[in-house]
Amino acid sequence: MAQFHIRCESEDISPYVILVGNPQRAEKMSKLLDNAKLVNEYRLLYVYTGLYKGERITIATTGMGAPSTAIVLEELINLGGKVFIRVGSAGGIDPQLNVGDVVIATGSIRDDGTTPNYLRPTFPAIADFDVTKTLIDVGKETKSNITYGVVISQDAFYVPYPDEEMEKFVKAKVKAVEMESGCVFIVSQYRGVRAGALFALDGNVYLKKMKPFDAEELFKRAEEDAINIGLEAIYRLSKAGLK
Ligand SMILES: O=P(O)(O)O[C@H]1O[C@H](CO)[C@@H](O)[C@H]1O
Ligand SMILES: O=c1cc[nH]c(=O)[nH]1
Predict the structure, then answer these.
(1) What's the pLDDT tens digit per position in 57-112?
(2) Is residue 236 part of a domain?
(3) CATH code for position 180
(4) What are the C-alpha distances in Å from 76 to residues 14, 40, 152?
(5) 180 CB under 6 A from ligand 1?
(6) Best mutation site among 93, 179, 185, 216 for ligand 1 pocket (most ligand atoms within 8 Å of CB)
(7) Which residue ranges does the record assign to the Nucleoside phosphorylase domain (predicted)?
(8) What is the pLDDT of residues 171-199, one digit of tens each?
(9) How far is the CA of 140 from the centre of ligand 2 (A)?
């Protein structure tokens, strides 16, 4: 049955889904599919389904932040989504990382207001092991300097963490900050589906090197790497029939 925001039917959605925040990234990725069909454009939450190397996959836009992401994920699960990979952007925190790097999340610090409505804040937001292992395998084959570890999912993009807290994150080897993976992991855990996430870095918030416009090309290359890793991973998981 068509959902309240994702206005398409179950037959329009593959169980294997790529999630992106930015609708332009969804459009860009749809061009890498054969026979891509736009199955939802309501609220600019573009959803495409098509073939990647012969496997039927869906690419869906979550919008920015946990509330929008939870809505989209819930509705995709209602429509039959089973395995999810978020292909996003993030700001580095690990001082070794900068624009152009790609990070795979093994888990997320849940600094958002949505997920405590699902599971208490002490419940860990952990990426699915099989999905993450596939992402890391593909990542290592694709990019020599792939990094993986814990990230932070926050709500307030324009409110930086206090220096003291940031130093603790660096000491604890937190890799990056973004806004949706914690929600994707918790909603997936709660609803009994699997999820992983990876990000192209657009700067480093700890080093206060945020979104340097002269590095746009480096970001685009990292975004392409993240897109290719995400697509290859979801293809392998679909081919293996991971449920
Ligand atoms: O590039 P996307 O996937 O949107 O991800 C990141 O970019 C947005 C902020 O600019 C937030 O959604 C954040 O998580
Ligand atoms: O949430 C985000 C996304 C990209 N870059 C950041 O610094 N934060």
Answers:
(1) 999 999 999 999 999 999 999 999 999 999 999 999 999 999 999 999 999 999 99
(2) yes
(3) 3.40.50.1580
(4) 9, 11, 24
(5) yes
(6) 179
(7) 16-231
(8) 999 999 999 999 999 999 999 999 999 99
(9) 23
Identify which of 86, 115, 236 has the alpha carbon closest to the alpha carbon of residue 176: 86
Q: Whole domain around residue 133: which residue ranges?
A: 10-240
- Which ligand lies nearest to the CA atom of residue 176 in the structure? 2
CA–chain centroid gap for 242, Å, is 19
How far does residue 162's CA lie from ligand 2's centre (Å)? Answer: 16
Global pTM reads: 0.98
Residue with tokens 């890793």: 229
Overall number of domains in the chain: 1
Q: How many CA atoms lie within 13 A of 217 on its CB side?
A: 1
Q: Does residue 192 fall inside a structural domain?
A: yes
Does residue 183 contact residue 69 with C-beta atoms inside 8 Å? yes
The Cα 227–Cα 86 span in angstroms is 10
In a domain, 233, yes or no: yes
Hey, whose CA ends up nearest to atom 8 of ligand 1?
Answer: 64
The CB of 99 under 6 Å from ligand 2? The reply is no
Query: Closest Cα to residue 136, out of 128, 146, 127?
Result: 146
What are the CA-CA distances from residue 7 to residues 28, 44, 72, 126, 173 (Å)? Answer: 21, 11, 11, 29, 41
- Contact present, 228 and 87 (Cβ < 8 Å): no
Angle of helix 23-30 relative to helix 216-240, nearest 10 degrees, comes to 60
Tokens at 220, concatenated: 């685009």
- With respect to residue 4, please indicate whether it lies within any of the assigned structural domains: no
